[in-house]
Amino acid sequence: PSELLTGLRGKDVVVAFVESYGRSAVEDPRIAPAVDPVLAAGTATLAAAGFSARSGWLTSPVLGGGSWLAHSTFQAGVKIDNQQRYRSLVSSDRLTLGSSFRQAGWETTSVMPATVRAWPEGAFFGVDRVHIGPELGYRGPGFSFSPMPDQYALAEFERRERGRADRGPLMAQVELTSSHVPFTPIPKPVDWNALGDGTIFAPQVEGAVTGDDVLKDDDLTRAQYRDATVYSLSTLIDYVQRYGDDRTVLIYLGDHQPQTSIVGEGASHDVPITIVAKDPAVLDKIADWHWDAGLKPGPQAPVWPMESFRDRFLTAFGPEPAQAR
Fold first, then answer.
1. How far apart are CA 98 and CA 37, in angstroms?
2. How many angstroms from the chain centroid is the CA of residue 253?
3. Any idea what DSSP says for residue 171?
4. What's the pLDDT at 319?
5. What is the pLDDT of residues 82-95, one digit of tens each?
6. Which of 52, 98, 175, 228 is disulfide-compatible with 126, CB 3.0–4.6 A?
7. Are 134 and 153 in contact (CB under 8 A)?
8. Reduced to 3 states, what is the DSSP secondary structure of residue 127?
9. pLDDT tens for residues 200-251?
10. Distance CA 177, CA 264 (A)
């Protein structure tokens, strides 16, 4: 434990999974013209606030669904592409990113707004405190699959965990679900100080196109996916600008590409990944990754299997090469 993650001591590390945020979001000409300006503006906005970012690509084990398989692949450093492998993993003693942080002295937490029952796997992933949807105090309307807007989930993470004065360094995994199929209704941002219990969102669902109607029309599905992704990314950028500080290290990535009706047959499994930090020493640690500057990876940025991230990360931020188990 004394040799784990020494390059991040004192930092709050937040891993945010953006649902269905895939390579198509930033490269498909039917989607990217709306998403790319958000990333460009976000890069400038965060730079003005003192943050820098580096971005690359990971290849997810799944496409169109199975988010928990991607999450576990990322955390455990082994490809998990079916439920049997997932069950075998969580009954093992394999080192995960969460358990690495926990062993090294971080408090660990997970915010899972779409989870509605106990999550015993949290112990395997090294999570001290799990916040599932029914416990987050939301009283507003549901947004199809997503029971609450990403803005509310992030605000509750801030209130319950990151914003606490009586804590040590924190490692968190936050799941952002507003860009989950069927991508309707799409939330609109509200004043962070006016969120309350979420009832402020009630008018936003009135008259929204139904999920059944969206999924009958591939062009409409693609448009809704585009707009939902814009919302999720904009909200996350706004959160960092508002609440981030010198201790903040944000790692955000997609879990998988959206379904084939959006990306087409034969699409890659690649998803963007970005690390944002204010302390330049953090990004200096990954200089040899050769990731692109800013919130958007370019077409020539490195592409790694998602399962390779664990060891690369532990090696970059530890004094000795990580020993896989």
1. 33
2. 5
3. E
4. 78
5. 999 999 999 999 99
6. 98
7. no
8. coil
9. 999 999 999 999 999 999 999 999 999 999 999 999 999 999 999 999 999 9
10. 22
Question: Tokens at residue 279, please?
Answer: 């302390």
What type of residue sits at position 124?
Answer: F
- The tokens describing 28, both together, are 């498909």
Single-letter amino acid, residue 132: I
pTM of the model as a whole = 0.96
Burial 133-169, CB ≥16 within 10 A → b, else e = beebebebbebbbbbbbbbbbbbbbeebbbeeeeeeb
Mean pLDDT to the nearest integer, 180-184? 97
In degrees to the nearest 10, what's the CA dihedral of 295, 158, 316, 42?
10
* C-alpha 322: how far from chain center: 24
**Taking the chain, what is the end-to-end CA distance rounded to the nearest angstrom?**
15
Structure tokens at 107: 């408090």
Whole-number Å distance between alpha carbons of 8 and 317: 6
Given pLDDT bands bounded at 50, 70 and 90, which one contains residue 324? Answer: very low
Strands 270-277 and 107-112: unpaired
Q: What sections of 144-259 are H helices per DSSP?
A: 150-157, 211-215, 218-243
Indicate the pLDDT class of residue 178, thresholds 50, 70 and 90: very high
Strands (E), 113-184: 129-132, 170-176
Q: What is each CA distance from 174 to 16, 108, 157, 192, 251, in whole angstroms?
A: 5, 11, 8, 18, 10
pLDDT bin (cut points 50, 70, 90) of residue 3 is confident
For residue 322, pLDDT over 80 is answered with no
* Residue 31 · residue 226 · CB < 8 Å: yes
The tokens describing 274, both together, are: 């970005």
Contact 313, 95 (CB under 8 A): no
* CB-based contacts of 202-208 (< 8 A; 24+ apart in sequence): 202/140, 202/141, 204/141, 205/141, 205/142, 205/143, 208/184
The amino acid sitting at 75 is Q
Instruction: Give, to the nearest 10 degrees, the angle between helix 309-316 and helix 67-76.
Output: 40
